[in-house]
Amino acid sequence: MITSFRDLEVYQESYDLAIIVNREVHKLPLYEKHDLGPQLRRASKSPPANIAEGWAKRRFPNEFKHHLDVALGSCNEMEVHIAMARDLGYWDKTFCDALIERYRYLGGKLVNLRNNWKSL
Fold first, then answer.
1. Is the pLDDT reported for residue 43 higher than 90?
2. Which residues of 71-80 are buried (b: 16+ CB within 10 A; e: fewer)?
């Protein structure tokens, strides 16, 4: 039974990803800690925050769906930032590829939740 945003799989996955990303940002080169680092931290925190905020407005399906769309956009943004960290050699390729795959999976789950919200 879903009684809180914390019960949503999309929230749990997005929160876990945000923790992973924020723990790894310190491995960026010093000059990227002030450029790519803040972008990674901000974009990784957006999906769980938007899911939580949208949940508070779930009585208004369009509002909730809007927040899910914002979370999806941040997932797409994370794919780009992680790919840059990988392709610039800052983070391990295998680690990055796995993260990107998890963000793609999360994006699919967000789309499914958005598309099926009224049926829940």
1. yes
2. bbbbbebbbe
